[in-house]
Amino acid sequence: MYLIQIRCYKDPKRLRLDWPITSDLVAVSDLNGNYLGLADLKVVAQLSLETSMIQKLNEWLAQVEWYDNHRLSIILECRRKAYWHLLHRGGLAQRVGPGAHAGSTVHAGIAAYEAGWGRIPESERRLDAFEAMRDTHNRVFGQLREEGFALDSRHELDNLVDIMDTYFDRFLEEDHLYRPIQSEMAMCVPIRPQAGDPLHFTDPFWYILRMDGLWRREATGDLYVMETKTTSGGVKRELTRHQINRQGTGYVWAVRQFPEGEACVGVLVNVVGILKDKRDYARDVETKSQTMCESWRRQTINIVEDWRELLRRAKTLTLQERLDMFYQDDKQCMNYGLCPFHDACYFGPVFAESMPTNTWTPFQVQQPLREAVESE
Ligand code: SF4
After folding, report:
1. Residues near ligand 1 (Cβ within 6 A)
2. How many structural domains does the chain have?
3. Ligand 1, residues 73, 75, 80: which to mutate, most atoms within 8 A of Cβ?
4. How confident is the model at residue 51 (pLDDT cuts 50, 70, 90)?
5. Which helix (H) or strand (E) holds 227?
6. DSSP reduced 3-state for 80
7. Cα 369 to averaged position of ligand 1 atoms, centre (Å)
8. CB under 8 Å to 309, separation ≥6 — which residues?
9. How far, in Å, is the centroid of ligand 1 from the Cα of 341?
10. With 50 as the cut, is the pLDDT of residue 43 above it?
11. Is 349's pLDDT higher than 50?
């Protein structure tokens, strides 16, 4: 089991790290649960993310069967989309739009703001947040600018900073109640057969996740997975969507696999509206019972087993037969904007030959950090 801190700040020493394993160390075990030892991760916290450690993790990922929330949800969404993104030529890249870049900018601000909790004045934390937003905005929108892309006024840095300034005002009192323990945590947790699992499940796989943060409610000691979603649609609608969201349940299940994580009771869902003339936010706590988490685990096993069965059947098929087997769900084509594989579906596999392939892993920051919610 890996538990890794992967986000670094200008001054990592300013982070208060209460999570015993992540401060400096990663506990390493193999897929059979054999404990292999502790590795020092200080180097990851202090150097840029293009370190040999990140490379090693990515090499390791290339050799194991792993699923994260993104992979699982794309498999559930549209079989053809899963085929394009996970299989065709090793998987086609999913181009990330400006909505996701704005989401990354907001997430960078929140992470920097959290880093100063309880140690530096709130006004200084805001400045740290805005600085982090500026750096991230330059990085993620840089390429689009080079390509001559005209930025929507909602996504301009000034607007995003103003949105977050109002957000910090709005949750000023509530944020005092929760101590951010860690931002941008990655976890790799094996899912192995155990009593009560579907009988056909015999081969383990890895569940990989990268959560926005882990917070502790100071009064009770309870832990919460903190997930921030950005949306250009209605924040209330987005909050409702997350009440039975698989992602949050899976993250809580994963945190509870660590002895220090047993106090995790649920998800603190945070929704930030990326709007031009209105400031809109929503926040709620979704508690996750043990029954929900165990059900999430068994459902995940069934999703993976169904996917494995498709892969087995696809092995001997021609390309056309394969495409027919990974059938299209056209209700998904315009969900959150145009599907990134629409042209491959519309013009056919010849067009897909010119599309770049997917190299993204949850340990990278150069590529999309997350799928921002974008309801146009
Ligand atoms: S365009 Fe529609 S059918 Fe094709 S992969 Fe995307 S969601 Fe599926």
Report:
1. 78, 80-81, 84, 328-330, 332-333, 339, 341-342, 345
2. 1
3. 80
4. low
5. strand 223-231
6. helix
7. 22
8. none
9. 6
10. no
11. yes
Q: Is the pLDDT of residue 21 over 60?
A: no
Beta bridge partners of 2: 188
* Backbone dihedral region for residue 198 (phi beyond 0: left; psi -120 to 50: alpha; all else: beta): beta
Which run of H or of E encompasses 113? helix 98-115
Q: What is the mean pLDDT of residues 292-321?
A: 96
Q: Does residue 18 form part of some domain?
A: yes
Task: Say whether 358 sits in a helix, a strand or coil.
Answer: coil
- Full domain range(s) for residue 196: 2-299
Closest ligand 1 atom number to CA of residue 339: 6
Residue 280 lies in a domain: yes
Helix axes 69-77, 79-86, angle to 10 degrees: 140
Residue nearest to atom 2 of ligand 1 (CA): 333
pTM for this predicted structure: 0.83
Which residue from 330, 338, 346, 355 has its CB within 8 A of the most atoms of ligand 1, so it is best to mutate?
330
Q: Name the token pair of 62.
A: 């290339």
Q: How far apart are CA 87 and CA 339, in angstroms?
A: 17
How far does the centroid of ligand 1 lie from the alpha carbon of residue 139, in Å? Answer: 29
Which CA distances in Å does 55 have to 22, 43, 80, 286, 348? 18, 13, 30, 35, 34
Q: Quick check: is 368 in a domain?
A: no
pLDDT tens by residue, 127-153: 999 999 998 998 888 877 777 778 899
Dist. CA 363–CA 108, nearest whole Å? 15
Give the pLDDT band of residue 24 (cuts 50, 70, 90). very low
